[in-house]
Amino acid sequence: xxxxxxxxxxxxxxxxxxxxxxxxxxxxxxxxxxxxxxxxxxxxxxxxxxxxxxxxxxxxxxxxxxxxxxxxxxxxxxxxxxxxxxxxxxxxxxxxxxxxxxxxxxxxxxxxxxxxxxxxxxxxxxxxxxx
Length: 131
What we know:
By secondary structure, this protein is α+β, with helices and mostly antiparallel strands. It has helices spanning 11-33, 38-53, 96-103, 112-118; strands at residues 58-63, 69-76, 89-90.
């Protein structure tokens, strides 16, 4: 049985996506190779994750040994001071990072309006941050 081939006209976009993915993985591996500390690994994770998603801002946080406390380690794209409001928080809190950890899935917010609807009690300006 022969391998399945992309339909004519679809091969070029599929090849381009495969090349972009391989280049992204290579960039991530190279960046991780020079990361020695937890905060450096977190910075690579958020930077490369945002690049792969085409997102403007994101956070990497660690669940502390108590199993409840979350501590942000690296963030990109937020206005100065926004993440200072959250030095630590509880995994049960109604916040995007806590939700991501509880569900073991990324939480993607597409706009400030989406953030405000999904997290109406978030104590920061929903539009504060990067692109």
